[in-house]
Amino acid sequence: MSEALRWESQPPRLTLHGELDRETLVPLWDVRKKLMSGITCLDVSGLERVDSSGLALLVHLREEASQQGVDLTIAGITDRLNTLITLYNLQDIIPAA
User: Fold this and answer.
1) Percent helix, strand and coil across the chain, each rounded to 5?
2) To 5 degrees, how large is the angle CA 43–CA 28–CA 3?
3) Distance in angstroms (rounded) separating the CA atoms of residues 12 and 72
4) What is the pTM for the complete model shown?
5) Pairing relationship of beta strands 41-50 and 6-10 according to DSSP bridges
6) CATH 3.90.330.10 fits 6-87, yes or no
7) Which phi and psi angles does 79 have, rounded to 5°?
8) Chain segment 45-92, per-residue pLDDT in tens
9) Domain coordinates in residue numbering, the chain
10) E strand map for the chain
């Protein structure tokens, strides 16, 4: 069973903790528009695990931010997450900060 996803918002930074996977991402998805307001840096260093669903959410958050004229930086990318980004050939969409 996945560890719950937690977050801490201190604009302009949003820090994620726990696991970001298909079982844990729904609460974040439900509040993403309000939560991302004023956020320019998404810190993922506190994530212990990210699966392909979690990676898709990160891509989506960057795209939503871009549509609002915000360059969302994703900080704290671990080696494991970077490997997943590389496997999906998303280095241009989620560059390592």
Assistant:
1) 35, 25, 35
2) 80
3) 10
4) 0.93
5) unpaired
6) no
7) -60, -40
8) 999 999 999 999 999 999 999 999 999 999 999 999 999 999 999 999
9) 6-87
10) 6-10, 13-20, 41-50, 73-75
